[in-house]
């Protein structure tokens, strides 16, 4: 049976299960451009983008990938038109409410990283509810970066460490990489093995700056709403052809 004939819920035979990334991170770019090409409002691109993310999450679950992190809303995205920002906040809230039961049933553990205190109270409540109700799940770990910025994350970690030093709870010579990682939003989450960016942009856009130090990066011209399982398959094939040396020979 060829990869094209294999049912979508099964790992394609040309992928080596032993060489799959444990953690995939995605920069979901191109919703607005997709909508423009379809002659639709930008908000329709965001709606289709949510569908693409839900399918990718289930694909990761089906194919045995342990963790998925999605860049949903950056600290810079507040600069978009207010109507679009308001729509995104409402969309996040509605999707969480509608999808929570499925995530519980499918054993998904959801987590949010970023400065969540700046989000609308109703959205914060849905986030807290979804995290609490899935915290004991032991399936795929789904992390959503919301109001997230990599530089902001590093600065807040430095402040937290400095505060502990000031209180005498930590000595400067005790600070190492492990100490620093424990103070990041992503504490307890393994670093991504593979970072995917859609829409062809050649930048990481302030996403997981510490965590992607040795991630393999895959960039595709495909716009996010069109990023389906076949596109993910191509990304994984490219990943499995890489030699990961982590600075060694």
Q: What is the approximate shape?
A: globular
Q: What is the count of structural domains?
A: 1
- Helical content stands at 40-55%
CATH class assignment: Alpha Beta
Through-space gap between termini: 38 Å
Strand content: 5-15%
Instruction: Count the DSSP helices.
Output: 7
Global mean pLDDT: 94
Structural class: alpha/beta
The CATH architecture term is: 3-Layer(aba) Sandwich
Physical arrangement of strands within the biggest beta sheet: 3-4-2-1-5-6
According to CATH, the homologous superfamily is Decaprenyl diphosphate synthase-like
The biggest beta sheet reads: 6 strands, parallel
Assembly type? single chain
Low-confidence stretches: none
Task: Please name the CATH topology.
Answer: Undecaprenyl pyrophosphate synthetase
User: What is the helix/strand order?
Assistant: EHHEHEHEHHEEH
Task: Tell how many strands the DSSP assignment holds.
Answer: 6
| Alpha-carbon Rg, integer | 19 Å
Q: What secondary-structure arrangement, pairings included, does this model have?
A:
Elements (H helix, E strand, L loop, with lengths): L22 E5 L3 H7 L4 H22 L3 E8 L7 H24 L3 E5 L7 H14 L6 E8 L1 H17 L10 H6 L11 E4 L18 E4 L9 H12 L9
Parallel strand pairs: 1-2, 1-5, 2-4, 3-4, 5-6
Helix pairs in contact: 1-2, 2-3, 3-4
Can you walk through the features of this model?
By secondary structure, the chain is α/β, with parallel strands linked by helices. The protein has a single domain, classed as Decaprenyl diphosphate synthase-like (Undecaprenyl pyrophosphate synthetase, 3-Layer(aba) Sandwich), CATH 3.40.1180. It is built from seven helices and six strands, in the order βααβαβαβααββα. Strands 3-4-2-1-5-6 form a six-stranded parallel β-sheet, with helices on both faces. β3 (109-113), α4 (121-134) and β4 form a beta-alpha-beta unit. The radius of gyration is 19 Å and the shape is globular. The protein starts with 22 loop residues before the first strand and ends in a 9-residue tail after the last helix.
């Amino acid at each position: 049976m060829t990869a094209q004939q294999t049912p979508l819920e099964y790992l394609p035979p040309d992928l080596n299960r032993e060489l799959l990334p444990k953690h995939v991170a995605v920069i979901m770019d191109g919703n607005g451009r997709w909508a423009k090409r379809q002659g639709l409002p930008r908000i329709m691109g965001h709606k289709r983008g949510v569908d693409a993310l839900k399918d990718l999450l289930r694909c990761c679950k089906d194919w045995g990938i342990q963790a998925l992190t999605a860049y949903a809303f950056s600290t810079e995205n507040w600069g978009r038109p207010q109507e679009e920002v308001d729509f995104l906040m409402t969309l996040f809230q509605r999707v969480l409410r509608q999808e929570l039961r499925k995530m519980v049933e499918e054993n998904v553990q959801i987590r949010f990283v970023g400065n969540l205190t700046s989000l609308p109270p109703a959205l914060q409540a849905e986030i807290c509810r979804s995290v609490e109700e899935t915290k004991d799940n032991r399936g795929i770990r789904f992390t959503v970066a919301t109001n997230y910025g990599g530089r902001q994350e590093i600065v807040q970690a430095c402040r937290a460490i400095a505060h502990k030093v000031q209180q005498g709870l930590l000595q400067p010579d005790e600070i190492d990489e492990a100490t620093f990682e424990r103070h990041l939003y992503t504490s307890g989450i393994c670093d991504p093995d593979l970072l995917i960016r859609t829409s062809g942009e050649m930048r990481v856009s302030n996403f997981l700056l510490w965590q992607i130090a040795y991630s393999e990066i895959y960039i595709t011209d495909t716009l996010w709403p069109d990023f389906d399982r076949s596109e993910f398959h191509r990304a994984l094939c490219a990943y499995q052809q890489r030699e990961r040396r982590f600075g060694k020979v």
